[in-house]
Write a structure and sequence with these properties.
alpha+beta, seven-stranded antiparallel beta sheet, five-stranded antiparallel beta sheet, 3 domains
Amino acid sequence: MWFRNLQIYRLTSPFEHSPEALHDYLLERAARACGSLESSTIGWDRPLGRHGSQLTHAAGGCTMICARLEERLVPSSVVREQLEEKVADLEEREGRRVSRREKGEIKDEIMQDLLPRAFIKSTRIYAYVDTRNDWLLVDAVSAKRAEELITLLRESLGTLPLRPLEVAQAPASVMTAWLQKKLPPSEFQVLEECELRDASEEKGVVRCSHQDLQGEEIQVHLKAGKQVVKIALEWHERLSLLLTDEFAIKRLRFLDVIQEEAADMEAEDAAARFDADFTLMTLELGRFLPRLIGQFGGELEKE
């Protein structure tokens, strides 16, 4: 249940749907299996899985939702091999070159033939609406994957006024200044991992792991014009994360202090355990995110 990544969105108007009403909206787009000729489907699933019956789970002003994406896996190498064979056979039989349009049609036929026999991969995307802070937080490694859930939610509700959270100061500039000035951000500890990228057209990249980021080697790269685009941080020995220049959070970990707090909370069954962990996670992120945002001058004000 603990989120491992964060794509952060600002709700630009109050989210007025109760968990019960939201469940009813989501029910219209409930998850279903792929049809034999469908390459993918996406719909809403129960956040608690087999331990729950609702498409929402609420605690402390936050409501968890879960989208389930099902995809039929057709290896591109198989499609390419069959396409090359069919095109070569057709050109040999008819003594002519096959046009691009014909190749596209042949490829579509191959896909239609392979889809019913393809394996199905199921992926769950979790998110929660925080009505206390007007956030939508999506556990997704990329904005593209988060947008799949957001698009589905917007289609389910009819409208969803939000935008990616933006900070006042460019994350790359701030993170670079932390290392250039050897001045770590207040409340945070800089760990031994970062990624540096050249701002020039060459886009050279340097990835550092298990290395002193205040050392001379890093300073050489910074003096050459590279900027910090990812950096590992720890907050009060409670959270660790990798922060990117897009103000996305990856490899989020809730450390021993929080795990011990979770273990101390009694739970009679799996549903109660989920509820306790969800409550603890949302409270912790509700404290943490404003402090992180504050390191970048707060949120960017939109007119």
